[in-house]
Amino acid sequence: MPLFGRRPGLISYSEGAVVAGFDTAAELRARLGDPAGAWEFLRRFARAWELGESGDPARSETQLDGALREAYAVGGVLDPGALEVQDNVLVFHYADPMITETMWGIPLDVAGQPDPPVVINTGDGTWQPYLERVSLACVDLALTAVIQDHDERLGNACELPAEMVESAMAAFNRVPLPDLPMWIGVEESPVRWWSGPGQLLRTHGDGGVWLWVSAQTRDDLEAVYAAIPCAEWNT
Fold first, then answer.
1. What does the alpha-carbon distance between residue 158 and residue 191 come to, in Å, rounded to a whole number?
2. Positive or negative, the Cα torsion across 124, 126, 132, 136?
């Protein structure tokens, strides 16, 4: 299977409407060329998965976070309590402190760029490269919000042994984000994203993996179960 899978047709939608059958991989692939495309994807994704009606208008108008205005204008993506300077890094997002002390930020010396690179600190006091574009880091955080906070009745998880991974994931499209570190525990890296219509999936680990699934509807979730018939789901 090619790294990023097939390219199904894009889904048409009317402005403001919830998009059923949203295919994350296809929608993002069509908009990777520039920051404006990534921010447009983020708006469409947030509507499709109902992340929030709106963001923080005051935050989105500040000059300090110019590269983040679009993300602040979308609800449910960034931590509203973030945005401070630590170690010459503009911190714009914190993970759930009950899980980890991880934070995401932009080095101050590149903060004026239109789409600057992002670094991550997992709580050990050191900053490591994360993604080369803050727009894509915000996309990753939006995907993570769906996996972590979506309706639990429309999600599930399972552990896939190494011999099952390739055949199981062949039914889905690879979301065009690079392999990422698992910020909860580096030993569980890499994180990879996948999708189908109305389905979002995340794997983490190498060899055998943990698979997490969120679906827009019960039918979408049942379609995931049908595609991976040998999986032993948590619920």
1. 15
2. positive
Q: Which residue in the block uniquely carries the two structure tokens 């309590």?
A: 81
* Secondary structure (H, E, C), 157-180: EEEECHHHHHHHHCCCEECCCCCE
91 within 8 A of 53, measured Cβ to Cβ? no
Count other C-beta atoms under 10 Å from residue 96's C-beta.
12
- Please give the torsion angle defined by the CA atoms of residues 145, 5, 183 and 102, in that order, rounded to the nearest 10 degrees: -40
Q: What is the pLDDT of residue 173?
A: 98
Q: Which CATH number fits domain 150-227: 3.30.1460, 2.50.20, 3.20.20, 3.30.160?
A: 3.30.160
Q: What is the pLDDT of residue 25?
A: 98
Confidence of residue 65 (pLDDT cuts 50, 70, 90): low
Binning the chain into helix, strand and coil, the percentages to the nearest 5 are: 30, 20, 45
Measured from the Cβ of residue 220, the count of other Cβ atoms closer than 10 Å reads 20
Task: Please name the helix (run of DSSP H) or strand (run of DSSP E) that holds residue 56, with its range, or none.
Answer: none
Question: Would you list the domain boundaries of the chain?
Answer: 150-227
Q: List alpha helices for the chain, DSSP H.
A: 24-29, 35-48, 57-60, 69-72, 134-149, 162-169, 218-227
Token pair for 186: 């580096």
